Amino acid sequence: MRLTIFKSMVMALVLTATALVQFGQPAPVAISKSPASIFDGEKLVFEGKVNKLKLSLSIAELTFSASAKPETNQLLITSEAVSKGTMLKIFRYSFLQEYESTVDLTNLNVLKTTKHDVQKERVRDSEAIFDYADKRVTYVETDPQDSNRPPRRIASSITAPIYDMISAVYAIRMQPLAVGKKFNLTVSDSGLVFNVPVIVTKREMQKTPVGRVWCLRVEPEIFGKNRLIDQEGKMVIWMTDDARHLPVKAHLDTEYGGVDIKLKSAVTRR
């Protein structure tokens, strides 16, 4: 598979386990009063596998953590996707993607996104700043291995509401989900802005690390022309049908095979 395909897969994996944001500058409030504070202290670990030629091949471990920043009204959401198993042994392909998303804890406004992206020898660092006064996101990407390489800069207009890759799914989790519910997310990645329609299609029983539980089947449209991933495909996320809407499993159908992401462990403070 080409490097760009693996990058698209990792982008989709990151999208499976994070949090929604709302637009607008909030008035200061106590962190404990925010509904989003339920995610403070949460840590989720997933395993990603590629299904190809009737084989299920482990490719990555994904870790997502959320913590309130001391003496602020902000939540820091971090994620890490690390290649493992078949990717390293057979394909001799390694990747590491680290995201940090800083959001306002009152309404989950995204404030800043940083990314460290390693694909074999290729390394890129980037930062996106969301300026709600000017209604603009500014993205800067650099090559830490080549100081002579000019930064890549992209700026786009934003309107309410706006999300980033690492904060998109937690917001879905904050929604009053039910079968038949439809809504749209506006997601910014690498300085560009995309519309992502989301629909809740079914209620299904799923096997999880804590046993069999009822889950809602959530389908965000991230594949296709002018979408986050510019190729044919489909993505499904299963979230527990309770107040927390914990993402326990995701499946992606792509032009190059299927990808399964399953929850291995979950730690919460509440």
Shape label: globular
Largest sheet strand order: 8-7-6-5-4-3-2-1-15-14-13-12-11-10-9
Structural class: mainly beta
**Helical region count?**
3
What do the pLDDT scores average to?
A: 82
The string of secondary-structure elements, in order, is: HEEEHEEEEEEHEEEEEE
Tell me the β content: over 45%
- What is the percent of helical residues? under 10%
List the uncertain runs: 1-32
Our Rg estimate from Cα atoms comes to 18 Å
Question: How are the secondary structure elements laid out?
Answer:
Elements: H1 3-14, E1 43-52, E2 55-68, E3 74-83, H2 86-89, E4 95-104, E5 110-119, E6 122-131, E7 136-142, E8 152-157, E9 163-164, H3 168-174, E10 182-189, E11 192-208, E12 211-220, E13 233-240, E14 247-254, E15 257-267
Parallel strand pairs: 9-10
Antiparallel strand pairs: 1-2, 1-15, 2-3, 3-4, 4-5, 5-6, 6-7, 7-8, 10-11, 11-12, 12-13, 13-14, 14-15
